[in-house]
Amino acid sequence: MAQFFKAKPKTSALMPKKIQVTASTLDHLGAGVAQLDGKVLFVPGLLAGEVAEVKMTEDKKQYARAQLIKVQQASEQRCQPLCHYYGSCGGCDLQHLQIEAQRRYKQQVLTELFEKFSGIDVLPEIEVLSGEPVAYRRKARLATWFDKTSKRFFMGFRARESSKVVAVNECPVLAPALSALIKPLASSLAQLQGITSLGHVELIAADSGILVVLRVTKPLSDKDRQRLLALAQKLDCQLVLQGEDGAYDYLHGAQPFYRFTLASQPLTLHFNPGNFIQVNGGVNQLMIAKALEWLAPKTGEHILDLFCGMGNFSLPIAATGAKVTGVEGVPSLVEQAQTNAIAAGLSNAEFYCADLNGDLRGQPWLTQVDKLLLDPSRAGAWELLACLPKLQPASLVYVSCNPANLARDSVRLVEQGYQLDKLVLLDMFPQTHHIEAMALFSHK
């Protein structure tokens, strides 16, 4: 039998160009949630309770997505975005929501994650640790792109869900000293002969000065190096080139290590450009103080700090007189933590290197401790928590950059006899939907 081909109509033809919707709430990514023909419709930029004109961009069986065209009835919580790049730059996604409303929204998200994944029936009241809503980032990575057709150079942030680079001259969430560097730095980089060899640019505001790390895929010419040297002198910043092999070439005024101070102790932590540091220094201070409050370390106690990095928690805990063992999977961070402890005169802190997501049998530190602190990566600590019976801490503090996995890992903690006593929202990234959290568990 002959079969005749009939072309299916294009998806765009099936969707109306513009429709009116009303958002009921926000999803976990900060997008407005509405209903359309019995399915969920996600609209970035739309707030709960708002009526808006939107344009359909995606229509699936279970859900749909749309682009916000015009808000027709605005929420009282809507505010004017503080950055004129907002909407094109992909760095922030909640600047249209008042800051206090942002934090209430994040509290609700954290509550919903625990209700969905933890199995804990009654949650403690969620405290919020927050700092300044702007000018809070002491570290940022900017992308670069040279358009060979138009001969234009772009330096800025990626657009949302795109590889496109949105050129910016300033950024209000960066430390002012870093924001002020963007425009003159981009202008000078555009003049380099080796412009096609430029990768990302990292800006860091340390107590020891402003640091610019420039990634290059090929060695720069002597002329380009001299141009960069003159620029660093003019901008009064330290400039480091990072080669394709990851090695650092300290070009101007730079030193192998930089520093920031933990004011609560005070303690000085040294780091190099490749080390991880918390980008929100103010909330980091509050987070450390809260961990010390919850752990209440005492002289003679043994406290284990897993995923310890370069000693962000280990050193403040050791400064109280407790014995601290820190474990980290990155050798350079372990070495830096040891160096920081020696510089601080803390002989009661020792550090080990181990893959905390791997086989830990035979590890010398895997023994009974009084208390435990965990600060894992986004993957969480599900596998590691199988070792908890060997450690037997009376209490533990879990710091998480992915609260969904913190809630998931709570299941294993409850199974092993622990109860959730405290839960805190860490507003590390104001103006974005991203949330972090920390929790205190004690053994029943």
Poorly predicted runs are 1-6, 8-12
Mean pLDDT: 93
Fill in the CATH topology of the largest domain. Answer: Rossmann fold
Write down the CATH class of the largest domain: Alpha Beta
* CATH architecture annotation name of the largest domain: 3-Layer(aba) Sandwich
Q: What spatial form do the alpha-carbon principal axes imply?
A: flat
Describe the sheet with the most strands.
8 strands, mixed
Number of strands: 23
What strand order characterises the main sheet? 7-22-23-21-20-17-18-19
Structural class: alpha/beta
Distance between the termini: 74 Å
Structural features:
444 residues; alpha/beta; Rossmann fold; OB fold (Dihydrolipoamide Acetyltransferase, E2P); eight-stranded mixed β-sheet; flat; disordered N terminus
Descriptive overview:
The protein has 444 residues and is of the alpha/beta class. It has 3 domains: 17-73, Nucleic acid-binding proteins (OB fold (Dihydrolipoamide Acetyltransferase, E2P), Beta Barrel); 111-132 and 280-443, Vaccinia Virus protein VP39 (Rossmann fold, 3-Layer(aba) Sandwich), CATH 3.40.50.150; 139-256, OB fold (Dihydrolipoamide Acetyltransferase, E2P) (Beta Barrel). It is 23% helix and 31% strand. The chain has 9 helices and 23 strands. It has helices spanning 11-14, 99-117, 176-189, 222-235, 281-295, 314-318, 331-343, 388-391, 403-415; strands spanning 19-22, 25-26, 32-36, 39-43, 51-59, 63-73, 126-129, 139-147, 152-158, 165-167, 198-206, 209-216, 238-242, 248-252, 258-262, 267-271, 302-306, 323-328, 349-353, 371-374, 395-400, 418-426, 436-443. The strands form 4 sheets. It has an 8-stranded mixed beta sheet with strand order 7-22-23-21-20-17-18-19, with helices on both faces. Helix 2 runs parallel beside helix 9 (403-415) and helix 3 runs antiparallel to helix 4. The longest helix is centred in the first third of the chain and has 19 residues, at 99-117. The model is unreliable at 1-6 and 8-12 (pLDDT under 50).
